[in-house]
Structure formats: C-alpha cells, structure tokens
Amino acid sequence: MAITDKIFKERRQKKIKAMAYKTLFNLEDPTARIVLNDMCEAHGVFDGGFDPDPYLNAESSGERNVVLRILTICKMSLNDIIGLSEEEDK
Q: What is the mean pLDDT of the chain?
C-alpha cells in the first residue's frame, strides 16, 4: 500500500469516528445533553478534579481527559460546555 493511500485511509477513518461521536453526543438531543453534562460533572471537567493524593489525582485526570477528548472530537465550544452545566440548574 502506498504511503498516500495509507494517509488517505487514516484520514477517512478519523472522519468516520468523528461523525460517530458527533452523532452519539448530539447537542440537539436532550438525552445526549444530560449524559454529557453528567460526564462533565462526574469527571471534574468543570472543577478540575484535583486530589492531593497523586494516584487519585492521576486517575481523575485520566477520567477528565476522556471527557475532554469527546468534547474536542465533537468540536464543542466552551460556551456549549458551560451551557450544559447551567441547563441542569434550571
């Protein structure tokens, strides 16, 4: 397989994965908004999730990074994320 074919295939797979994430975490769907907001709150996206124990801090940092990866793939703005938190307060 040529290098250009491999690069093209990798880019295509990345786009397919991004579309799948955007479908699953569609901000137009109220259920997806509730789940995503819960994930943000449970894994310290809004508060940083710091723990003085280095092992617990590393674990919470990893959890937070998973949620941040989802937000990044879905190209959600900071306003979208803050809106999720404020939505449940109503």
A: 84
